[in-house]
Known about the structure:
By secondary structure, the chain is mainly α.
Amino acid sequence: MLRDKNLVPLSRQHQHALALCVRLDRALQAGEVDREAWSEEIRQIFALEVATHFAAEEKVVFPTAAGFPGLHPLVDELLAEHISLTNLFTRATTETLDANSLRSFVDQLSAHIRKEEQQLFEGLQQVMTADQFILVGKALEAALADASNVCIVPTEATRLRLRS
Protein backbone atom coordinates (compact mmCIF):
# COMPACT_ATOMS: atom_id res chain seq x y z
CA MET A 1 0.00 0.00 0.00
CA LEU A 2 1.27 3.47 -0.87
CA ARG A 3 2.33 5.34 2.27
CA ASP A 4 0.11 8.28 3.28
CA LYS A 5 2.09 11.48 2.71
CA ASN A 6 1.67 12.47 6.36
CA LEU A 7 3.66 9.41 7.46
CA VAL A 8 6.41 9.83 4.85
CA PRO A 9 8.78 11.78 7.16
CA LEU A 10 8.79 8.83 9.59
CA SER A 11 9.17 6.33 6.74
CA ARG A 12 12.14 8.30 5.40
CA GLN A 13 13.80 8.10 8.82
CA HIS A 14 13.02 4.38 8.89
CA GLN A 15 14.92 4.05 5.59
CA HIS A 16 17.97 5.76 7.12
CA ALA A 17 17.95 3.37 10.07
CA LEU A 18 17.43 0.32 7.85
CA ALA A 19 20.41 1.38 5.73
CA LEU A 20 22.50 1.43 8.90
CA CYS A 21 21.21 -2.06 9.75
CA VAL A 22 22.08 -3.41 6.28
CA ARG A 23 25.62 -2.03 6.44
CA LEU A 24 26.19 -3.32 9.96
CA ASP A 25 24.66 -6.71 9.16
CA ARG A 26 27.01 -7.15 6.21
CA ALA A 27 30.00 -6.12 8.30
CA LEU A 28 29.03 -8.62 10.99
CA GLN A 29 28.58 -11.39 8.42
CA ALA A 30 31.98 -10.61 6.92
CA GLY A 31 33.61 -10.49 10.35
CA GLU A 32 34.90 -6.99 9.58
CA VAL A 33 33.55 -4.99 12.49
CA ASP A 34 35.33 -1.99 13.93
CA ARG A 35 33.20 -1.98 17.08
CA GLU A 36 34.27 1.49 18.15
CA ALA A 37 33.43 3.01 14.75
CA TRP A 38 30.03 1.32 14.68
CA SER A 39 29.24 2.37 18.24
CA GLU A 40 30.11 5.95 17.28
CA GLU A 41 27.83 5.84 14.25
CA ILE A 42 25.01 4.41 16.36
CA ARG A 43 25.54 7.24 18.87
CA GLN A 44 25.36 9.80 16.06
CA ILE A 45 22.18 8.47 14.46
CA PHE A 46 20.48 8.33 17.86
CA ALA A 47 21.45 11.90 18.72
CA LEU A 48 20.67 13.36 15.30
CA GLU A 49 17.50 11.50 14.39
CA VAL A 50 16.26 8.51 16.37
CA ALA A 51 15.66 10.20 19.75
CA THR A 52 13.41 12.78 18.09
CA HIS A 53 11.81 10.09 15.92
CA PHE A 54 10.90 7.93 18.92
CA ALA A 55 9.53 10.97 20.79
CA ALA A 56 7.37 11.96 17.79
CA GLU A 57 5.96 8.46 17.48
CA GLU A 58 5.24 8.29 21.20
CA LYS A 59 3.66 11.76 21.31
CA VAL A 60 1.67 11.68 18.06
CA VAL A 61 1.38 8.32 16.29
CA PHE A 62 1.08 5.87 19.16
CA PRO A 63 -1.70 7.77 21.01
CA THR A 64 -3.60 8.11 17.73
CA ALA A 65 -3.22 4.40 16.96
CA ALA A 66 -4.14 3.40 20.52
CA GLY A 67 -7.50 5.05 19.93
CA PHE A 68 -8.36 2.23 17.52
CA PRO A 69 -9.05 -0.99 19.46
CA GLY A 70 -7.46 -3.23 16.82
CA LEU A 71 -4.17 -1.33 17.02
CA HIS A 72 -3.90 -0.87 20.79
CA PRO A 73 -2.03 -4.17 21.50
CA LEU A 74 0.43 -3.35 18.70
CA VAL A 75 1.11 0.07 20.25
CA ASP A 76 1.91 -1.62 23.56
CA GLU A 77 4.43 -3.90 21.78
CA LEU A 78 6.03 -0.98 19.94
CA LEU A 79 6.39 1.05 23.14
CA ALA A 80 8.14 -1.88 24.82
CA GLU A 81 10.44 -2.17 21.81
CA HIS A 82 11.25 1.55 22.04
CA ILE A 83 12.43 0.97 25.61
CA SER A 84 14.61 -1.99 24.60
CA LEU A 85 16.06 -0.14 21.59
CA THR A 86 16.68 3.01 23.63
CA ASN A 87 18.64 0.87 26.08
CA LEU A 88 20.82 -0.42 23.21
CA PHE A 89 21.33 3.10 21.86
CA THR A 90 22.17 4.33 25.36
CA ARG A 91 24.69 1.52 25.83
CA ALA A 92 26.33 2.63 22.57
CA THR A 93 26.73 6.13 24.00
CA THR A 94 28.54 4.89 27.09
CA GLU A 95 30.54 1.94 25.81
CA THR A 96 31.72 0.17 22.71
CA LEU A 97 29.20 -2.54 21.88
CA ASP A 98 30.47 -6.07 21.42
CA ALA A 99 29.59 -8.16 18.35
CA ASN A 100 26.64 -9.85 20.09
CA SER A 101 25.18 -6.48 21.10
CA LEU A 102 25.66 -5.15 17.57
CA ARG A 103 23.87 -8.24 16.18
CA SER A 104 21.03 -7.74 18.66
CA PHE A 105 20.85 -4.07 17.67
CA VAL A 106 20.51 -4.93 13.96
CA ASP A 107 17.91 -7.63 14.57
CA GLN A 108 15.79 -5.61 16.99
CA LEU A 109 15.88 -2.32 15.09
CA SER A 110 15.13 -3.82 11.67
CA ALA A 111 12.27 -5.96 13.05
CA HIS A 112 10.84 -2.95 14.89
CA ILE A 113 10.90 -0.76 11.78
CA ARG A 114 9.25 -3.44 9.67
CA LYS A 115 6.54 -3.88 12.31
CA GLU A 116 5.83 -0.15 12.31
CA GLU A 117 5.76 0.07 8.52
CA GLN A 118 3.87 -3.14 7.76
CA GLN A 119 1.51 -3.33 10.72
CA LEU A 120 1.12 0.08 12.36
CA PHE A 121 1.24 2.38 9.34
CA GLU A 122 -0.75 -0.01 7.16
CA GLY A 123 -3.29 -0.43 9.97
CA LEU A 124 -3.63 3.32 10.40
CA GLN A 125 -4.17 3.77 6.69
CA GLN A 126 -7.06 1.31 6.86
CA VAL A 127 -8.89 3.05 9.72
CA MET A 128 -8.05 6.76 9.58
CA THR A 129 -9.76 9.43 7.50
CA ALA A 130 -7.94 11.95 5.33
CA ASP A 131 -8.78 14.69 7.86
CA GLN A 132 -7.34 12.63 10.71
CA PHE A 133 -4.14 12.13 8.71
CA ILE A 134 -3.85 15.86 8.09
CA LEU A 135 -3.97 16.47 11.85
CA VAL A 136 -1.38 13.75 12.45
CA GLY A 137 0.82 15.19 9.71
CA LYS A 138 0.76 18.68 11.26
CA ALA A 139 1.53 17.29 14.70
CA LEU A 140 4.40 15.19 13.29
CA GLU A 141 5.84 18.20 11.48
CA ALA A 142 6.03 20.06 14.80
CA ALA A 143 7.33 17.02 16.70
CA LEU A 144 10.06 16.33 14.11
CA ALA A 145 11.18 19.95 13.83
CA ASP A 146 14.19 19.25 16.08
CA ALA A 147 15.38 16.28 14.02
CA SER A 148 18.60 16.95 12.22
CA ASN A 149 18.63 17.30 8.47
CA VAL A 150 22.26 16.23 8.47
CA CYS A 151 23.08 13.06 6.61
CA ILE A 152 25.45 10.79 8.50
CA VAL A 153 28.22 9.78 6.15
CA PRO A 154 29.68 6.37 6.90
CA THR A 155 33.34 6.28 7.81
CA GLU A 156 35.83 4.04 6.05
CA ALA A 157 35.19 1.49 8.80
CA THR A 158 31.38 1.57 8.47
CA ARG A 159 30.79 2.04 4.75
CA LEU A 160 29.09 -0.68 2.71
CA ARG A 161 31.58 -2.96 1.02
CA LEU A 162 30.95 -4.86 -2.18
CA ARG A 163 30.75 -8.58 -1.75
CA SER A 164 33.31 -10.53 -3.72
